[in-house]
């Protein structure tokens, strides 16, 4: 289930003093002996913050009111910058290992938190910042190209390392593919696509066993498959031994946790028509399922 969400960031720099952070939900039952039973309801916390209890000038409060009205109170989510937690370095930025999903490697960005004793927890990052440089590292080597990032979902798509044209495929157990100067090594996994005739091989990941510089078996029984006609390619993506990491900035998907905007008129200066307002009780909560 998704909920309404806009990719606009709430402008929290208008005032310092936003308080809050990660919040868990835990039930604690104390029995007669004094022992506790604790039930952890959430495996991952939700961020909760409060913007309020401060004075704002007219321009600032007009911005707050406009943003609050546009979000319809609790109704529509938005990007929120948590100044205490918005950066990821290449050690914290977990992407995964090679051999991803579908026709291309797709991965969800994560941030890993590690204590000095080595305890870790991962956080799904769905809102990387569009105007920051999201960098991909493969085996600690910075990649300057070959990937794209969805800034609305936090999914990174990694292109194939190399594509080779298939010129033949046998009906055998196991099947053998012919590719001139394929350059693959035994044990590598390649993705097959675009084959005419032996279409059952399309959208399969197969393991290479090199026979010659121009052919390799694929560990699949193709005896009952349709005869190969033409075309197709074998694409080499990052392998299971390749470690992918990332670095960059991210926002937190959030919403207001109130339907009432509460401001108090404090002072007015006639010479320049400036006014001062007290804004209180403007809570913000992270949302797990932005659309």
Describe this structure in words.
- It is a single chain.
- With 291 residues, the protein is mainly beta.
- It has 3 domains: 5-82 and 251-286, no CATH class; 87-160 and 242-249, no CATH class; 162-236, Elongation Factor Tu (Ef-tu), domain 3 (Beta Barrel).
- The chain has 1 helix and 29 strands.
- It has one helix spanning 58-70; strands at residues 5-9, 19-23, 26-30, 36-40, 46-51, 54-57, 77-80, 87-88, 93-97, 105-108, 110-114, 120-124, 135-138, 141-143, 147-149, 155-158, 162-165, 168-169, 176-178, 189-193, 204-207, 209-212, 215-217, 233-236, 243-249, 252-256, 262-269, 274-280, 282-286.
- Strands 8, 9, 11, 12, 13, 14 and 25 form a 7-stranded antiparallel β-sheet that branches. A 6-stranded mixed β-sheet has the order 1-7-26-29-5-2, with no helix packed on it. The protein has a 4-stranded antiparallel β-sheet with strand order 17-24-20-21, with no helix packed on it.
Which helices and strands occur, and which strands form pairs?
Blueprint: E1 5-9, E2 19-23, E3 26-30, E4 36-40, E5 46-51, E6 54-57, H1 58-70, E7 77-80, E8 87-88, E9 93-97, E10 105-108, E11 110-114, E12 120-124, E13 135-138, E14 141-143, E15 147-149, E16 155-158, E17 162-165, E18 168-169, E19 176-178, E20 189-193, E21 204-207, E22 209-212, E23 215-217, E24 233-236, E25 243-249, E26 252-256, E27 262-269, E28 274-280, E29 282-286
Parallel strand pairs: 1-7
Antiparallel strand pairs: 2-5, 3-4, 5-29, 6-28, 7-26, 8-25, 9-11, 9-25, 10-16, 11-12, 13-14, 13-25, 15-16, 17-24, 18-19, 19-23, 20-21, 20-24, 22-23, 26-29, 27-28
